[in-house]
Structure formats: structure tokens, C-alpha cells
Amino acid sequence: MNINEIIENKIKYEMGQLYNYLNEIENTYISPHITGENLVRFFNLNATNQYGHWRCVCPFHQGASNKTEFIFNDNEKSFTCFACKTSGTYLKFIALMQGFTSNALNEAKIFAAINFAHLNLTFNSISDYKEKIKQKVLKRYEATKSLNIKDYYDISVLPRESTPLVNTVARKPDNSIVINKKESSIEPSSKKDTELNVYAQAIEDAKNSILLHEILLNKEQFNSIDKLQDFMHKKYYISGGTIEKYGLIYFDRQNQSKLTHPNFYGLSDRVIFPFKDHNSGIIVGLHCRHVLYKKEEGKSKQWGKYSNILDYGELKTKDNGYQYYGIKSFSIGQFLFNLFEIKNNKVTKLWITEGVADCLKLISLGYINAVSPGQSNLTDEQINLLKHYFGCEIEVLLFFDNDNNNIGQCNSIQIAYKLWNSGFRKIKIVRTFPGQGKDLTDVAVAIQDDNQLQMLIDLWEKNGYVFSPASEEHLNILLNSGYYTDSEVFSIDPRDIEEEIAKVNLLKKLSQQNGIDIKELKQIKNITSILELKTNNSNDNTKDNVFEPAGTTHITPPSRNEVELCKTDTSQKTEYYFMNISDAQLYRLKQKFDIDTIKEIDEKCTREQIINIVGKIINGIPFELDEYFSPEKFTPPTLVDEDFKPILVEPEDMPF
């Protein structure tokens, strides 16, 4: 990515923030100041006031002379010309008077905010807004030379104050204008993080999707009902009305020939869970579960367990000349499964499950106020939806998978922090008990008794962890220690954070001793294991070898004073200073690459790409660095594995 691409992407994102901001201030700040009288005076119209309404000569059609044919209606904030029939809102009037044609409504809002509400926006038009963003990015680039777009996320030209600055207009004795800035006494609604243009594009794409239309309009033709009911019963212990109510479909491979493009393999042998838009209720995408997916020796088969499909993708050609259609994914992070169905409920307690099937199982048991993001994460947009429809006073029950790799529960902690920072205070993390099954449907299939399952759910909820964040002081100790990424810190259960701090402090002390490999010690999971390390003899290759220098008999726990000293010890010795690679990532990269290659990775890859590379090294996933050094030649994956991590694969039984 070069600086011009960063500028382009940054402007696209900030345009969404601008439109969101203008929508928020429209009713509170702009509209109250746009009145018939103010419009008449500002545009110097030939007008009179009759019966409480301002009337004037129409400024839009030629030959107008009647002072009463054009009227401003303050009650409806609208205007009408009874002669030429031009009409609309006050903002449309401003747009017409100013000659705005491109993005006229938002241009009118900016103009009105400055000239009628007297807000200090620091920009006077959309083009000026874009230019100021560009200049700020270039200024940052000149100082940092960074080509990582994350280093530009904090740049904004929108007002940063909690309340917009209002310019009050006064006049000097010589009639010259003085503008005084003061805070408005009206408190605006909080600024949302949602990219409105991404959501709007998702809706537009759904409306234009060929695949969605033909699947949903010909559901009976494509749905293998018997196979659907059999799979849902055996895999999730879900049956009956729930399947029908939520429009589930079993797309058998034999039905592929009926598609507009039969050489599309994205739906074959999959159960389809349609996702609805929370506003309109239209289907915006298909969340698909492969029915033949299974694990073999810890590795998944070639196809992904889940995929999120919007439409036919690009037509691709194999080396042997065979052509097939890829997948176009939908923006699942903009939506929540089952939100449309419950958005008008009086919700006091909301269940959030990782999987859609778990959500459906809860609903079938009577826990109707349940939603699912369809992934092991909750995006900012989805959190904003919860705030918008239910407010922050509800109790949120995070019911994610209790899997062996701990991804679901680590993500639960991260999500709990995000919810807390968004204003939610009643957060409980619920999980199945060890040995029962990793999620709700696992247990449902195991016991096949819904009455007993309801009792278990109530028990899990009762024993759930009432989330309370770790103190800022404790978090900062770990964040500043150099041993963790931000994501890792916010995945630590707050109840365990003091032990984690003690571990870090001890590791720092041990790293100062000659012969200690701090990166190896970091892999030790708890402080007890560290304290139980025994004497290390450099010539002894037995299993009892430890990372102590010769002559050390044992390691004793640090005293309180030593712990306090460790807190301020941030010295690190590295042979090369990396801009984007952390110590933990460097340790993993050294297992595969020489130092020159690692330097090249640091220079050419973004931090997000480096995280992806390290993840593949840890999990033994083969890859080529050219995928990251030359991304323009690399086709991003559309399928995901059981942990919702993207993978680039094709069904092994494709006919090519």
C-alpha cells in the first residue's frame, strides 16, 4: 500500500464519519436555526410576513413577481411555490439557492451548520473536508514515513469537543462582525463509529444480488427439506417450527444444475442460515454451514466449515481451462442474526451466542431475546446496534464456545471490554461446564432432553462470571511490558491479571540472569511452573533441564520489593529495531526466517499482515511471502475455518 492508497482509504472511511456526524447534529443544532425568517434575511428575499408565515417572490422561476406565491412553513420545515410547484425541505431550499448538485443534501447541511447554526466545523464543504484529511495524512507521513494505515486511524477533522463549538455573532460599534466561540448548551447524541457507507453498500449489494433473488424466490426448488430436518436434528437437536420460521435451506449438490451459473460451488452441500437487515427485514446474505465438514487428525478438510455468501463472485479459470464462479461475501459484521425479529421487544436480558445454531436453539427453548454475530467476535457496528435498539441498561449474557483452543472464551473477555467501554455495565460471561460440550448445541445433542437442557442453561447462567474490568493501572503494566499485544492483554480474565503481572515481573528478573532465554520462559503459562524450575546443567540433556545459569540451585519467589522494582524495568536488548514486529512475533519469525528476511517483512508488511504470518507459523499452515510482498497478485480467501479464520481452498471433489 502506498501513501496515495492510504489517503484514498482514509477519505472513504472519514466520509462515512462525516455523514454520520451531520445526521446527528441535524435535528439538534441545524434545523432549529433554519426558519423562514432566517432564510428570508440570509438570502435577502423580497418577502412579507402574513399570518405567521413568511411569503416571498419565488427565486426559482423566471418572471416571478407575486410576493405571496412562495411560502415558508416553519412547522414542517418546508417551502412551496404555488406557481412553478417547486417544493421541498429547508435544506433542499438551501441546496437550490447555493447551486449544490453533487451530494447536495450533505453540502446543504454543512452550509447551514456554518451560516445558520454558527458551528465551528473547521471545513466549509465536502471537498474542503477531503482536502484537510489529505493534508493531515501527508503531514503525518512526512514525519513518520509509515505505510501502515493503522498509524493514521486517529486523524480526524471533525470537532473533537464533547459539544460542538458555536460561533455567536455580535457587532462592534462600527458594525463589523465579531465571532465568539462558546460551547452549546444542548448536548448532542454520542458519535457512532458505524461506517454508514459500508452498511448502505451492503444493503444495495443485497438488493442487486442475482444469487439471493433466485435462491429466495425459488426456495422450494432448492431446499431438500428431509435432509435439512435430519441434519438439524442430528447436529443441533433443532426441529419443527424454528427451522421453518427462520427460512433455513439445505442446498443439495444435486440442485446445483438449477442455478443461473451451475459452475458455482459455494452453496453445494450446505445448510443456509439467511441473515436479515435489522431495518427493513430483507435478506442481506447467506451464512452457510458445510454439512460434510469434519476434522481429521486435528486438520480440517479442504473446504471451510462456514462461509458468508452474498452473490456470485468473479469468473475464474483453472490452468486446465475449466471456468467456475468464485464467492462474493457479505459484510456480516454490519448485522446481527435475529435482531430484526426482536428489535421492538422490551428487552432486559439479551443472550449473545457465537454460533447461529446456538442462537436458534435458545430461541426454540423460549429464550427469544437472543442474537448472534455469526462469528467469534462482536464488531463496533454490532455493538452500536445493541445500543441503538436496547440501550446500555440491559443485561448482556455472552454465551460463546467453551472450546479447547479457548478462542471463544478469550474473545468473550475482549468483547466484554468493548461492551464496557461502550457504556454497558451488566455483562455476564456464560459457558458450559467442562466435559459437557463446547457449546449449547453440543450439550443438546448429547442429552436430547430440552427440559434438562433448560435447567442446565439456568445453572450456567447462575454460575456465569459477572464481568468487571481490570484496573487501568494493572492493564497498563501488561500493555507497557513489551511481552503482549493489546489483543492478548484484553483477552486475560481480569480475575487472573494479578497472577499474570507477577509472572511478567518474575520473567523480567529472570531475563537479567546470564543464560536465561526470556522468549522461552514466556511460554510458561503460570507462575507456579516458573518457580518450580530446577538446576540447569549446560551439559545435561535430561527432561529436567531448565533455563537457569550454571551454579544456580533454585529460583525463589521475588520479594514484594523485587516485584515493585520489576514494574519499572522496561529495558530491552535487541540486535535490530523493528517498526512493526513485536518481541513475541520476532521469536516466532526467527523459527522460520533469517534476520534479513525478517527485516524485509518488517519493512514491507503491515502489522495486520505480520500477525497473519505469525499465526500461520504457529499453526503450521504453509504460505509464501510473495502473498504479502505482492498483495496485488494474491486473491483474498472467502471461506473460513471452524474458528472463522479465512482460508483459501476449493472443494476437493470439484471436477477440475
What features would you describe in this structure?
One of its GO terms (biological process) is DNA replication, synthesis of primer. This is Zinc finger CHC2-type domain-containing protein. Keywords: Metal-binding, Zinc, Zinc-finger. GO terms for molecular function: DNA binding; DNA-directed RNA polymerase activity; zinc ion binding. With about 650 residues, the protein is of the alpha+beta class. The chain folds into five domains: about 5-150, DNA Primase, Chain A; about 190-330, DNA primase DNAg catalytic core, N-terminal domain (Alpha-Beta Complex), CATH 3.90.980; about 335-480, 3-Layer(aba) Sandwich (Dna Topoisomerase Vi A Subunit, Chain: A, domain 2), CATH 3.40.1360; about 495-565, no CATH class; about 585-645, no CATH class. Helices cover about 40% and strands about 15% of the residues. It contains 26 helices and 22 strands. Strands 8-9-10-13-21-22 form a six-stranded antiparallel beta sheet. A hairpin with a 6-residue loop joins strand 9 (about 270-275) and strand 10 (about 285-290). The protein is globular, with a radius of gyration of 30 Å. The two termini are about 35 Å apart. Mean pLDDT is about 80; it is low at about 165-195, about 295-300, about 525-530, about 535-575 and about 635-655.
Which shape, going by the Cα principal axes? globular
Rg calculated over all Cα atoms: 30 Å
Look up the CATH topology of the largest domain: DNA Primase, Chain A
- Numbering strands along the chain, what is their spatial order in the largest sheet? 8-9-10-13-21-22
CATH superfamily caption of the largest domain: Zinc finger, CHC2-typedomain
Low-confidence blocks of residues: 167-195, 296-302, 525-529, 533-575, 635-656
- The top-level CATH class of the largest domain is Alpha Beta
- Beta-strand portion reads 5-15%
Domain Zinc finger CHC2-type: 53-101
GO molecular function: DNA binding; DNA-directed RNA polymerase activity; zinc ion binding
Keywords: Metal-binding, Zinc, Zinc-finger
InterPro entries: DNA_primase_Znf_CHC2, DnaG_primase, TOPRIM_DnaG/twinkle, Znf_CHC2
